[in-house]
Design brief:
By secondary structure, the chain is α/β, with parallel strands linked by helices. It contains 13 helices and 13 strands. It folds into two domains: 159 residues, no CATH class; 160 residues, 3-Layer(aba) Sandwich (Rossmann fold), CATH 3.40.50.11350.
Length: 359
């Protein structure tokens, strides 16, 4: 086995189901692993630019990709500048960097970075077909001595990087949530326009109230063979249990976020004082769509990518203002729990999630 790949394989098994190990052959992995980042940078004596590139997944799966990269940078003291460039190989792309539509840049780098991004885009374009939706082996690709890029949930800068990653298939531990909150606070700032919309909603609906956040992941996830989606009725029972544990004098509001309009309507019909943001959702018909690399996506995103992007960001920002979050897990839920470690998590799940594999 290639000497650069061998140290990583046992760690990767914690994160990737066996069926995904067929996505890239070992021959391909040998081509993909261009360098051991840390050793190469040390030998060159330079502070390189690392560009985080997109995969054909949802916005908050990409968010986790950024978090894991930043965790490695901070906790392994990696000497590099990091920028995010999410372009056309993911469903929310509207012609400009999707990250910049939602967040401020991670670094205030000068205009010369644009030249580097164009070079990375060309290099990435040659690799994207062999990556098959994501880079299973966590490769760090080298364009030249001062320019690298990654497109993996779990970037492997060296043989111990996997110890710093947060899984996309496990409820994050308290420790993971605190660690992620630290890098989010340092690096990730939401764009002002979105914050203003959040603040207006909070002032209208949340002020002086205990907020129960409810997030239901449906649509294309119903067609994912790895998942079984819980019924609406299970959410009814858990919400009632949560309300029963709150002092009767407390003013409670239920904030509902979902990719299915039917779920939002159902919760409104079951409970009082239910609110939701006016965002794009599935309203029936064909629920599953495909991203640019043919990966499952909610079909409604294709109708209005910009509207869908703003909607999922508003749901994220408003769920972050809840005191308890009732959910069936997904990228959005994971992002909320990592951003706000004090929120109580109440999971409604049937399969899909893996048991904890680390403390």
């Amino acid at each position: 086995m290639n000497q650069l790949v061998a140290p990583y394989m046992s760690a990767l098994k914690r994160y990737w189901p066996t069926r995904n190990n067929k996505k890239l052959s070992l021959r391909q992995s040998q081509k993909n692993v261009d360098c051991q980042f840390e050793k190469f940078v040390e030998a060159q004596g330079e502070r390189p630019l690392l560009v985080i590139k997109e995969r054909d997944v949802g916005l908050f799966s990409l968010f986790l990709q950024v978090i894991n990269t930043l965790l490695c940078k901070e906790e392994q003291s990696l000497q590099c500048d990091v920028v995010v460039d999410f372009s056309g190989h993911q469903a929310y792309f509207t012609g400009t960097n999707t990250w910049d539509e939602c967040f401020e840049s991670l670094n205030g780098l000068d205009s010369s970075v644009e030249v580097s991004l164009r070079r990375v885009q060309k290099h990435y374009g040659r690799r994207v077909k062999q990556m098959r939706f994501w880079d299973l082996f966590g490769s760090i690709y080298r364009v030249d001595s001062g320019l690298f890029w990654s497109a993996s949930y779990y970037p492997l800068f060296n043989s111990t990087s996997a110890e710093h990653h947060i899984s996309h298939k496990q409820i994050p531990t308290d420790s993971d949530r605190q660690r992620a909150n630290k890098v989010i606070g340092r690096y990730i700032k939401v764009n002002r326009g979105l914050l203003e919309k959040r603040d207006a909603f909070v002032a209208d609906h949340f002020k002086g109230k205990r907020v129960i956040g409810v997030q239901f992941r449906g649509t294309d996830a119903r067609h994912d063979s790895r998942r079984t989606i819980p019924s609406y009725e299970r959410f009814h029972r858990v919400i009632r249990d949560e309300i029963s544990n709150i002092d009767s004098d407390t003013d409670v509001v239920i904030f509902v976020a979902s990719d299915e309009q039917a779920f939002v309507d159902d919760i409104r019909g079951q409970f009082h004082n239910v609110v939701s943001a006016e965002v794009l959702r599935d309203e029936g018909g064909v629920v599953e769509g495909r991203g640019p690399r043919k990966w499952l996506m909610p079909n409604f995103i294709e109708r209005d990518r910009k509207g869908a992007l703003e909607g999922v960001m508003l749901d994220y920002l408003l769920l972050c203002r809840s005191q308890v979050l009732i959910h069936n897990f997904g990228g959005l839920t994971n992002a909320v729990l990592l951003t706000e470690p004090e929120i109580k998590s109440v999971l409604i799940s049937e399969g899909y999630l893996e048991p904890f594999t680390k403390n």
